[in-house]
Amino acid sequence: MTTPFPKTPAFMTIDEPFRFEGELFDLEVEGEIPAELEGTFYRVGPDQAFPPKMGDANPFNGDGIVTAFRFKNGHVDMQHRYVMTHRLRAERKARRGLFGDYRNPFTDDPSVKGIERTVSNTNVVPHAGHLLAMKEDGRPYAMDPQTLETRQLWDWNGQMKATSFTAHPKIDPETGDFVGYAYAAKGEATKDVACYTFDKEGRLVWETWLESPHAAMIHDCGVTPNYLVLAVIPQLMDLERIRRGGILFQWHPEVDQVYIVIPRGGEGKDARFFRAPNAFPGHVINAFEDGDKVYLDLPVVNDNVFWFFPDASGRAPDPASLRTQIVRWCFDMSSKGDKPTAKIIAEVAAEFPHVDDRYVGRPYRYAFMQATDHTKPYNPEKAGPIMGFFFNTFVSIDMATGETKSYFVGDTSSTQEPVFAPRSPDAPEGEGYVMGVVNRRAEHRSDLLIFDAQRIDEGPIATVKIPVRLKYAIHGNWVPASVFPLPDDV
After folding, report:
1. Containing domain of residue 205, as a range?
2. Angle at CA of residue 79, ends 73 and 81, nearest 5°
3. In a domain, 97, yes or no
């Protein structure tokens, strides 16, 4: 490599590019992994393969790299491979960075004009025999779930017409339907939203189009048996701004949160638009319905979370000023109004939620997240300075009572998103295991911690020792062996 990576926060300490692909067989385990854990924990995150063309990069701009932790008979194996996107292939051929700023094609090298820009670094989701690597600015890439070989750019065999697709689809646990949407569905900074359902075999079941009130970020959704709910964040896009070389998104403190509620199988004209005061709606925990009422649970932050997308004055809030509430919105579909009601479940700086997937879209009780506990110590002399997002605990939240249980990972460590695996297919809700990667920042390596989901506060029942440093992943999922059979050598 002829050009070094910049010495900027996006590429230093624990965020230094790893750029390695490979396998580790039979990882060392402290404690005991339950024998009933049989399946794969897939995760994906950004790992910039080449120094950025612009000299620095948004933390979400790195090439997608997938990790698979495969569990069987108390043992764990690991694979780690890049999503071989058109973008990465082009840069490998040139041996240099060719793509410019985050979601800004006007800053690209002319040689890559027209090449699919997505880095597929945000989520990995199983569907119709593929592992789909997803980022909301483009179509997914289909990967082989056993080898992690990239198969193809995926548009459901031509059935999806949108130019993008969410990284947060939802799978209906009763039907296997794959429900999702695309925003900026006709190109960056457009208001167009396309809603989709594909059945478990990948056949198109539902497609409808509508316009969002704003050309804005719509990062996540909730799904119930009869509705799809989209959370519109007050981060607005402007095509002329990016033509001038500016950022795609800009925070607008005068703009409301908007929640779009549309009947599954309905038409765009059937959508309802509910508005709440300006704030930052985060990742959806779950949604469910009761009669004419649709409920959506998610963390809501009082101000802009994305410091790299500030407001028009360049202001980004001091992280210490941010306050998070776990909110349950109620949208009354029998009413004529556009104001939802809110119930505060808990006040905790928690994000990146997972629930028991068997209860997606249904009444449920337990959520599993990571959080920042500011009362806990941190040792920057050993672990390095905190840059960007930082979480230091795993938490479970009883959504019926608001009770939280947490586990602090130590003063030189940080957490990544946890996922949930049920103890068995017929176990009660929340009976099973939570697992999540921890960065051992002082040691420049990682561990995978496994907890009894009902007793997170008691600490891990097993620690999988990872002899390398895994960069921060964005999202992942537990996929049981009944969905994706394990390779023969596992």
Report:
1. 176-347
2. 160
3. yes
